Every structure is written in C-alpha cells, then in structure tokens.
Amino acid sequence: MSGSIVTGVLAIGIGIVFFIGFRKIVRKFTKGESDCCSTSACGSCSCQCASKK
Predict the structure, then answer these.
(1) What pLDDT, in 10s, does the model give residues 1-47?
(2) Rounded to whole angstroms, what are the CA distances from 9 to 12, 13, 22, 23?
(3) Do the Cβ atoms of 6 and 15 come closer than 8 Å?
(4) Please, which residues have CB within 8 angstroms of residue 28's CB and are 6 or more apart in sequence?
(5) What is the C-alpha to C-alpha distance for residues 15 and 21, in angstroms, rounded to an integer?
C-alpha cells in the first residue's frame, strides 16, 4: 500500500518538473525569448532580448 503512494507522489513530482520544462521550451520557440530574458538585468546575453519584449 505505501509503495503505491510513494510511486504516485514520485509520478506527480516528475510530471510537474516535466511540465515546467516543457512550458519553458515552448515559450522559447513560440515567443523567441531566451533564458536571459527572464532575468531583470538581461543576464549575460548582451541585452538582445530587450528588443523582443
């Protein structure tokens, strides 16, 4: 019984992490954003993302 509970919790955790990663990939391709655009100072991408917002 407790084995199935642990398996369910792990499946939910893996599903959440997968969803977050998939959403990030989709956002990157559909909106043309890079990872540096999510930071306030535009990170180390030489602020190319400032023109895409």
Answers:
(1) 788 999 999 999 999 999 999 998 888 888 776 556 555 555 555 55
(2) 5, 6, 20, 21
(3) no
(4) 34, 35
(5) 10
